[in-house]
Amino acid sequence: MQYPEPIAKLIDSYMRLPGVGNKTATRLAFFTIDMDQESVDGFADALIAAKKDLHYCSICGNITDVDPCEIDRDPTRDQSTVLVVEQVKDVMSIDRMNEYHGLYHVLHGVLSPSEGKGPEDLNIESLIKRLQTNDAIKEVIIATNATPEGEGTAMYLARLIKPAGIKVTRLAYGLAVGSDIEYADEMTLLKAVEGRTEI
Ligand SMILES: [Zn+2]
């Protein structure tokens, strides 16, 4: 027998999530059906609001419900340093340490010739514009992951930014080669920021 269509649709929806196969999706679908109406409504509202109310900050590319984002609107942050990361999640990882108090810039990926991903596919143009129009920025810390693509992107950005007389540094890798910032523990990240070196 086949599942009634609403259940089949729900299973199908859960299966679009990363790492969720048919078995887990089926379990989640039946769990959802057993939830009370209020909880299901709240769940659905949260899903819709997250997509509708969030967008990328026009300055830094971080995810936000107000533009510019909270970090860019905070005058107590060190306006002289911009830390460049691959993903929004990396901003959270680094800011959680409460050790870095400067600004961020999110690339939304890395250069990857094999996947046909060039500079125009990343949030690089707005970084350059930002550096050109904001004299307060004295240092750009490149915190892309320690993967070949992350390294290549760091070198590309350094070549692009250095002629403007802005100091370009790279996180000290204490972070193991091939590792993602997202999974690094706080101590490792802290050391990486402290021991950054000029490139
Ligand atoms: Zn921002």
TrEMBL record:
It comes from the Bacteria. CDD domains: TOPRIM_recR. The keyword DNA damage applies. Residues 80-176 form the Toprim domain. The keyword DNA-binding does not apply. One of its GO terms (biological process) is DNA repair. SUPFAM superfamilies: Recombination protein RecR. GO terms for molecular function: DNA binding; zinc ion binding. InterPro entries: DNA_Rcmb_RecR, Rcmb_RecR, Rcmb_RecR_Znf, TOPRIM_dom, TOPRIM_RecR. Belongs to the RecR family. This is Recombination protein RecR. It comes from Lacticaseibacillus brantae DSM 23927. The gene is recR.
